[in-house]
């Protein structure tokens, strides 16, 4: 039982870290769009490849363009925060019960 609890805690910690890293990727990608980056820059390409599929999925579900401002990054961040607060804490609670 203690091994399973430790495994669940480790998975929850890694999930929390990955969610936080992706939140920062979304924030950086959103901020970069304000300065018209060079589309051939490898860092810009990586950021857009990491975020555009998620934005496209969100845009299919919800209209994100309001007043000329794209709210897709904000929706993604809020969804990730919800997953972090709900799923990760649920995993930690499950590990504590075991």
UniProtKB/TrEMBL annotation:
InterPro entries: CCB3/YggT. The chain crosses the membrane at residues 12-35, 71-95. The keyword Repeat does not apply. GO terms for cellular component: membrane. Pfam families: CCB3_YggT. Keywords: Membrane, Transmembrane, Transmembrane helix. It comes from the Bacteria. Belongs to the YggT family. This is Membrane protein, YggT-like. It comes from Sulfurospirillum diekertiae.
